[in-house]
Design goal:
Blueprint (H helix, E strand, L loop, with lengths): L1 E2 L3 E7 L6 E8 L10 H21 L8 E6 L3 E6 L7 H6 L6 H20 L2 E2 L8 E3 L8 E3 L6 E2 L18 H4 L6 H16 L14 H10 L14 H10 L10 H5 L7 H8 L9 H9 L3 H17 L7 H11 L6 E2 L1 H10 L6 H11 L7 E2 H8 L2 H7 L3 H12 L6 E2 L1 H8 L10 H14 L7 E2 H8 L33
Helix pairs in contact: 3-5, 5-7, 10-14, 11-15, 12-15, 13-14, 18-19
């Protein structure tokens, strides 16, 4: 169903149940002939590793094409992913679909949301363009999902990168000048927005309709951006303002992805309802909270489940919204067995006003299910929905819960948590000596989540740091998935509206 310079994408069918997936096959060596140099092969392999690492780091975000699994043989790596049947954003743009300004705003919000999620996880995308966003299905209002993270990379706050990469027409000026940070992604979002609204790129060679990269770079660095020609006079001032702020040539003053999501032009009516409290449980933030939780590492998710258990047993009224969360769990658990299965999760969320597919619920459940039993228990549910940052600020009991959780894991009481003790948490008391090599890799990854000094152990200070929440990882960076139909159940407790 697709091919590029790095591999082939096929539609595949799982024999056991007929479910369709996309399988991306990436060769371990470049296609180019003659054989490439050792340096270029190493870069190619780093690109391959990047795509895997980034997709795993982003988790079960509904804004991203989901990675179910990966396989390797002698010649290639195979990525089993969501099958998106609605085609590329670029394809719909070329098909001449007339988007209203509000429709365009919803699409731009999806693109900017992807950038914001990446940045909150320390990831720079580096190839934001319409080709890399797929519609989940063929409906006009289909969700949009990002794909192809081969050029993405990890970045720390304030770090500057120098490798010029991406697609020339969408490159920021500072990328061309080889000195850039995550702000470059916002410029690319601005180019996509401009293209969606006008049907053309902001930098075009009026003489040469097929300019080379050098001419494109010159135009990006020097040419004035046209905000005068049609349709700009017909667009709202808010629309023009945001596109200008994203296409600011100075990365220091350019709007950030997180700030762009709060810009009036990108605040859809449904988003405003959710932010003001409205009718859906937790101010319409359930699906957003589940996605954010899915981006945490396995160790952090597992420890938060322990804290959820302590919170529920010690004082269910201690945390804001906890009573409402427990009520929602009971509503979802239609079988009454104190577990929520994927079909119950989807049916319940749709009943209270969310629009989410069965596949997406299974993806979210895969991250919520830290005990690996195929269901969500009440403690896993609380772990995902509680505003732990607010709880840390407001509850005097929170430090004691954290210390108690640490002591529960530190079985031998020596003041540190080792790999064997992590294995007991993650693999439910499985003997560390009987773990497979893959399971041991999982444990090593868990240790690395918290082990800041590299000694292979987790002390109390590292444990506390692990549980600290990033204040920049805001819920507005995740899809709300509120249904246009609304919900039939109102769990509008005062405590449940938490805007963070």
């Amino acid at each position: 169903i697709g091919a590029g310079s790095y591999g082939i994408v096929r539609k595949v069918t799982r024999r056991s149940d007929g479910k369709k997936f996309a399988l991306k096959t990436i060769r371990k060596a470049p296609w180019r002939q003659p054989p490439t140099s050792r340096t270029s092969v190493q870069y190619y392999h780093s690109k391959l590793r990047n795509e895997l690492e980034v997709m795993r780091k982003i988790g079960s975000s509904l804004s991203i094409v989901y990675l179910y699994d990966s396989f390797e043989d002698g010649d290639a790596v195979h990525l089993l992913m969501d099958l998106c049947t609605g085609g590329e954003l670029l394809g719909r743009m070329r098909a001449g679909i007339n988007y209203s300004e509000r429709d365009a705003a919803e699409l731009v919000r999806s693109v900017v949301r992807t950038a914001a999620q990446c940045h909150s996880r320390g990831i720079i995308f580096r190839d934001i363009k319409p080709d890399n966003f797929l519609f989940d299905n063929e409906a006009l209002d289909s969700p949009l999902k990002a794909t192809d993270f081969g050029l993405a990379g990890l970045i720390t706050p304030g770090e500057k990168l120098t490798r010029r990469c991406g697609t020339p027409s969408y490159m920021a000026p500072e990328v061309i000048n080889r000195n850039y940070g995550e702000e470059a992604d916002v410029w690319s979002c601005g180019v996509v927005a401009y293209q969606l609204l006008t049907g053309r790129l902001p930098f075009v060679d009026k003489v040469n309709q097929r300019p080379n990269a050098k001419e494109v770079f010159r135009a990006i660095l020097e040419d004035q951006i046209d905000f005068v020609a049609d349709p700009w006079p017909r667009l709202s001032p808010e629309c023009v303002d945001l596109v200008r702020k994203m296409l600011d040539r100075d990365p220091e003053t350019r709007i950030t992805a997180r700030a762009a999501l709060l810009h009036p032009w990108l605040l859809a009516p449904t988003s405003e309802e959710a932010l003001s409290g409205a009718t859906q449980p937790i101010g319409g933030q359930v699906v957003a909270r589940l996605q954010r939780f899915s981006t945490y590492g396995l160790l952090k998710r597992s420890v938060l489940r322990l804290l959820g258990d302590q919170l529920r047993k010690d004082d269910p009224n201690a945390g804001p919204g906890v009573e409402g969360f427990l009520e929602l769990f009971q509503l979802l658990d239609t079988s009454g067995d104190d577990l929520v299965e994927p079909d119950e999760l989807q049916a319940g969320l749709m009943r209270v006003g969310y629009d989410i597919t069965q596949d997406e619920c299974e993806q979210l459940l895969d991250s919520l299910d830290t005990t690996n039993d195929g269901c969500i228990d009440v403690d896993e549910f609380l772990a995902a929905l509680v505003d732990w940052e607010a709880l840390e600020r407001s509850s005097e009991a929170y430090p004691s819960w954290v210390k108690e959780a640490f002591n529960m894991l530190d079985k031998d009481g020596n003041g540190t948590i080792d790999a064997g003790e992590v294995a007991e948490l993650v693999f439910m008391n499985e003997d560390d000596g009987k773990l497979t090599s893959e399971a041991k890799k999982v444990i090593a990854a868990c240790i690395s989540e918290a082990d800041t000094d590299g000694d292979g152990l987790i002390d109390l200070d590292e444990f506390i740091t692990l549980l600290q929440m990033d204040p920049t990882d805001r819920l507005d960076a995740y899809e709300l998935r509120l249904s246009k139909r609304g919900g039939s159940v109102d769990l509008s407790a005062d405590e449940t509206v938490l805007v963070d």
